[in-house]
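Good morning C.,

I know you're traveling, so I'll keep this short. The sequence:
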Amino acid sequence: MRRLRRQHDVEEWDNPPRVKSSGWGLGAFMSGPIGRMVTSLLMIPLHAIPFAGMAIAAWFKALGTARYLHQPYFKAKGMTPEQIATFIEERKWDYRCTSFGFAAALAERLPIVGLIFSISNRIGAAMWAHDLEKRQHYVASVKAGLAPGVEHKLKAT
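The tokens, ready to paste straight into the viewer:
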């Protein structure tokens, strides 16, 4: 697998969140294959609630599903566990609720068509990784003053 160039890794936040990730612990265990099976077993009682149970279980699994689907992206960038934890913390709501994580977890929980969604979620993860890289390039060009139209906006304010 080809490594992405690291020269465009730019911090988007003025004050990035501080996250400690030792690589060991509950978060690392739960994002692995055994943790995913344990989570699935713990979510079985939620299946007794017809539609809301599926949505609640998907919300709980959203962050882990999104982290799992973006593992190839993190590997390609050569990110350390601390960098991955910070990256996810900065985009926690995108991973968990608003767009990617919840939708991916919910789609994979649907009977029969969930198998198809497990493939399309991988494609969606790759597309979102591409968008994240485009944003990194844009932030880098803004910070360097190379983005078109940025000079006028900065001078006007």
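Safe travels,
E.
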